[in-house]
Amino acid sequence: MRITGSVSGVTGVYTNDKKVSRVDSSNKVSLGRDDVKISNVGKDFTTVMNALKNVPDVRMDKVNELSAKIEKGEYNVSGYDIAAKMLGE
After folding, report:
1. CB 75 within 8 A of CB 81
2. How far, in Å, are 34, 37, 47, 52, 54 from residue 43 at the CA level?
3. Of 6, 25, 57, 83, which alpha carbon lies 20 to 30 A from 41's?
4. Cβ atoms of residues 3 and 10 within 8 Å
């Protein structure tokens, strides 16, 4: 690459000490306040989740009923009914 003309002008761009004047006013960032807004769907979801926490995982009334039938020998399920439930029919 060949540079013609004033080489000192080209190098002067990089060597000149350019003084920057002091900034008179500082740009202060105002301390704002963050706001969080929860949508109605989010509120409904929270309500449902709190309600589900109070529902037991096991329905003990059904367990006790079936346990009593089994002990008395009154609980009889046909193989067809079992197969139908397993296949989701």
Report:
1. no
2. 20, 10, 6, 14, 18
3. 57
4. yes
Specify whether the CB–CB gap between 75 and 66 falls below 8 A. Answer: yes
Q: Is the pTM of this model over 0.70?
A: no
Residues ≥6 apart with Cβ < 8 Å to 38: 46
Closest CA to 65 of 52, 74, 77: 74
Helix, strand, coil fractions of the chain, as percent rounded to 5? 50, 0, 50
List the alpha helices (DSSP H) in 36-76: 40-53, 60-72
Residue 76 reports pLDDT greater than 80: yes
Q: Which two tokens stand for residue 11?
A: 């190098």
The one-letter amino acid code at 72 reads: K
Spatial distance between the Cα atoms of 78 and 36, rounded to a whole number of angstroms: 57
